[in-house]
Design goal:
Layout (H helix, E strand, L loop, with lengths): L4 E5 L4 E13 L2 E7 L15 E6 L5 E6 L1 E5 L4 E7 L5 H8 L5 E5 L3 E5 L5 E6 L4 H10 L5 E8 L13 E8 L9 H8 L8 E8 H14 L7 E7 L9
Parallel strand pairs: 10-11, 10-13, 11-12, 13-14
Antiparallel strand pairs: 1-9, 2-3, 2-8, 3-7, 4-5, 4-8, 6-7
Helix pairs in contact: 3-4
């Protein structure tokens, strides 16, 4: 199989689902398991897919935010979505107070980025908002894959144990949430890393300025091929519901 990434489009469909259960993954990360008959046929082929989550808002309006489908269990009819609780937005507030039986709607994903698993190695870099996608990709990589993750979190209690058949090396960077838009902690960890030989795929997601800085370092300083790198600004400091 060639070393490539390719995009697949999906038919858009809005689904109304019910909260089945809640799981406190870490003190700052909450997982909701959603279920319902309308989940049948749900398709998410990429680890960093996004669904649009619609939750009740003010004045009978609905708020919408993008979230990664953390895990989909077709046999059990369950979809897991993780919420970083430091986010003070309406979707996080809804998740914090949600109870089994509460309803919400999702739309999408609109499409998926399919990444070949035949790369010699994978490097995944991000912050709390990227952990659902990072965790999902690590879990899904096959035995024999080499994967390194560098993730910035608020402290040791926020580190997550990720089960995988792949050979995974985890690097946790501890910094306060007030420094979540500072690229230095992650950049220092990246600079200290010795990458394997051979072609590798790099995935980066964090605050927009952090993601830009790390992307620039990978391309300009480390000479990584741009076609084998994806960087996303999952959030923008000072702007609600903003991405780059």
């Amino acid at each position: 199989m060639p070393l490539e990434t390719r995009r697949v489009r999906h038919d858009l469909r809005k689904r109304t689902l019910t909260v089945r259960r809640k799981e406190q993954v870490t003190p700052g990360m909450l997982r909701l398991w959603l279920a319902g008959e309308e989940l049948a046929g749900f398709t998410s082929l990429g680890a960093d897919d996004h669904v649009k989550l619609f939750v009740p808002g003010a004045d009978a309006e609905h708020e919408r935010r993008d979230y990664t489908p953390r895990r989909y269990d077709a046999a059990a009819g369950e979809l897991a979505i993780d919420f970083a609780l430091h986010d003070a937005g309406p979707a996080t507030d809804w998740a914090r107070h949600a109870r089994p039986g509460d309803t919400a709607s999702i739309g999408g994903p609109r499409g998926s980025l399919i990444v070949s698993t035949d790369f010699d190695w994978f490097l995944l870099i991000g912050d709390e908002t990227a952990l659902p996608a990072i965790g999902r990709r690590i879990e899904q990589l096959p035995s024999g894959s080499l994967v390194t993750s560098i993730v910035a979190v608020a402290g040791p209690d926020e580190e997550q144990k990720i089960e995988t058949a792949a050979a995974h090396q985890a690097h946790w960077v501890h910094r306060s949430l007030t420094r979540a838009d500072d690229p230095v902690p992650l950049l220092n960890a990246l600079q200290a890393l010795e990458l394997p030989q051979g072609p590798g795929f790099v995935w980066i997601a964090a605050e927009a300025n952090v993601a830009r800085t790390l992307r620039r370092h990978m391309l300009e300083t480390m000479g990584h091929p741009p076609r084998w790198l994806k960087a996303s600004g999952y959030w923008v400091k000072g702007q609600a519901d903003a991405q780059e």
